[in-house]
Amino acid sequence: MIDLASASAVVTGAASGIGEGIAQRLLERGASVVLGDLDAERLAATAARLEQDHAGRVAHVAGDAADAEHIAALIAAAGDVDLYVANAGVFRGFGLEAAESEWALGWDVNVMGQVRAAQALVPGWVERGSGCFVSTASAAGLLTQLGSPTYSVTKHAAVGFAEWLAATYGDQGVQVCCLCPMGVRTDMMREGETSEDATGRLAMKSVVTAGATLTPLDVADVLLEAVEAGAFFALPHPEVGTMYARKAADTDHWISGMQRFRSSLEQ
User: What is the per-residue pLDDT for 149?
Assistant: First the structure.
């Protein structure tokens, strides 16, 4: 298991929300953290805030988390990376009419950004016998995401990739943890709740009515507990595990229930 107190970590999507929360908790544990995000101005402000309490252990590199060159820059800034948190994600594309560009963006950020990071890190981790890869995949990757096929499909793919990594490299020193929260009070949630697209609003309403809305720090606490325990799934909403089991046990019944849930939200 990774010793978080001495770990060198990278967290993408770290300018706000879950990524910022994870970075803060890692720093509080004693880790050194490189923050990445597409929003350069906000990233710099977040890094400056964290640096106040954790001087010398915070760095930041702005860029696209799906871009191989940016991933390489994050890794270079961190040095020997012990923990990579592939947290950056996008929530775009609602309904069957979602545009090709929205599908492409979701696939690139939510899936290929994680694939490219693993390609850059896993061979070295196998060679030295240690390393931890965290995939922020969402409860949508275990259940579904009403309203957004792009988010649902790409988050399912993220879970599938994390499972494959664990099955392939987990006995070679590479730890994999898949983070699957439901509602978390982030910019993504606020944007969904105020979307001009009715299907987009339904998508976010389905999240906030399915369970408690947590803070990013709540989610970070559950993630780090899972990492320290060597668990594959980190479920900030424990009920997601129950829903996932019921879905597997009787998928037809689960789908009927989701249809009723969607209908109630539409009304």
Answer: 95
What is the pTM for the complete model shown?
0.93
Do 95 and 199 form a contact (C-beta atoms < 8 A)? yes
Buried b (16+ CB within 10 A) or exposed e, 190-203: eebeebeeebbbbb
Question: Which residues are catalytic, by number?
Answer: 151
The residue with tokens 């609003």 is: 201
Q: Which two tokens stand for residue 216?
A: 């990013």
- Taking CA atoms, 243 is separated from 189, 237, 255, in Å, by 21, 10, 11
- The CATH number of the domain where 43 resides is what? 3.40.50.720
The predicted-structure confidence for 113-152, as pLDDT tens digits, reads as follows 999 999 999 999 999 999 999 999 999 999 999 889 999 9
Residue 84: in which H helix or E strand, if any?
Answer: strand 83-86
DSSP H helices in the chain:
17-29, 40-53, 68-78, 100-107, 113-128, 149-169, 187-193, 198-208, 216-229, 239-249, 251-266
User: What amino acid is encoded at 26 in this protein?
Assistant: L
Mean pLDDT for the chain?
93
* Distance between CA atoms of residues 243 and 60, nearest Å: 37
Is the distance from CB of 181 to CB of 138 less than 8 angstroms?
yes
Q: Number of structural domains, the chain?
A: 1
Residue 262 backbone dihedrals phi, psi, to 5 degrees: -60, -45
Distances from the Cα of 126 to the Cα of 84, 170, 199, angstroms: 14, 9, 44
215 is in which domain, residue-wise?
4-266
Which token pair is 174?
Answer: 């590479």
Phi, psi (5° rounding) for residue 40?
A: -65, -40
Nearest to 43 by CA among 8, 68, 17: 17
